[in-house]
Design a protein that fits this description.
Structural class: alpha+beta
Distance between the termini: 41 Å
Pfam family, one: MmgE_PrpD_N
Strand content: 5-15%
Largest sheet: 4 strands, mixed
Helix content: 40-55%
Number of helices: 22
Organism: Streptomyces malaysiense
GO molecular function, one term: lyase activity
CATH architecture of the largest domain: Orthogonal Bundle
Family: Belongs to the PrpD family.
Radius of gyration: 22 Å
Protein name: 2-methylcitrate dehydratase
CATH class of the largest domain: Mainly Alpha
Length: about 475
Amino acid sequence: MFIPEQRKEPSENESRAAAAETLAEFAHQIYRDGIPSSVQEYVTKLIIDQLGLQLACSRLPWSQAAYDYVREFGATGSSTVLFHGLRTHPEHAAFANATFGHGQDFDDTCQMVQTHAGAVVIPVALAVAEEVDATGEQLLRATAAGLEVMLRAAHAVSPDCLRRGHHTPPAAGPFGAAIAAGLLHGQGPRELAQSLAIAGSFSGGLIEYTQSGGSVKRIHTAIPTTAGIRAVALARRGMTGPLTVLDGAKGFVNVFADKGSVERLTDRLGTRYIIEKVGLKAYNCCYFIHAPLEAFQFLMRQKNLVPSDIAEVTVGLSAHGAVHVGSIVHPVDPLGGQFSVQFTLGMAAYGELPDLDSYSDEQLADTRFHAFADRVRVETDPVAEAEYPENWGGVVTLTTTAGQTYRRRVRYATGTPQNPMTGDEVWGKFSRITSDALDGEQAAHVREMVRDLPALDSVRRLSALLVRRALQPSR
């Protein structure tokens, strides 16, 4: 258990420890002493899911753009760009792998704090662990510490950060990335606090893509990876920042939220892990769509309905959810589709559930899906609004052409902490989405290593398996 360093009560002329100092102390302690078994189990699931997505999404158009950028940059180093096998500087490897990991809208999400933490912290931890030749245990602990710090930073500005138009991964991500990188580089609490103090100057990110699409969201988890790694590199070379970067008058919480909570940064630190509130995704679309998608599927199956039976669909979400996934009715690109509940229900009506290859050009041009999308109305639901942001549930009402009305509410979609994916389901997703990236022998070796990361003597052995077969060293 984390026990903050005992300090005497500050006098009138002294100040209390800044949140960055307390978080740095916490991160250093769990990196040194270990993490609870339940947290280790959760982090392992997140690593499995993220590695699968990095491999599976490594050849998408926006992923290829990130890879080409990194390759043409020409930096040298010992960190691996997954699937492609390029060895480069950890900053560039992390940037590419994070783009891959968020290359679809299929990666982990924490509803309570509204962010994608795995696709930020895990690429950083893996890249730096390769650089310093860390063990699997060190990778696990650094990942856990980075995730927890990033999640707490995001929680402190939730839900205002998204409501104001800032995306939480590039906003809060630099802090988690800096913690993971700093720990693996051997930074102590004071040095880690300075890395956090520098990292805050990189915070940013806009969510206009939810209104009109585009592929830039794919690098929103990559941008903070470079920020965190750079912050650590600069701190190691003597640069300093404001230790009140998180909780100061002009610090992160007060800038990114109208009604932020500085207390959330350290509340029950070490006794409650927000990591355990992170959910995995069973569907490749925005999490706001998952609950109404499952409600819609249930009603269509239970009542034996076909698309021509439906006159109207009403989807009830929180006010933010209604704007977030209800603004784009007729998407013209994959990201627009992943943020359109209307179009996604149109796909589902015809048996197409969002998976890795969904929202293809053919699907986006399918007039059946667009015609059905016109029958979907999105509104604010009082129950969903009251439960937001801790829960992203929704309610669906179907009205048939015969005048019948059916209604179903789903509060916890598959993959949420309240309705989690099992270990077998997580590995099933990994196997399904990586089937054309890894052969069966590779996948089996990856599974063996990740299931027992504490026993892994060098992360480099794992990274060597995460490239296409032709590039692997002979065994």
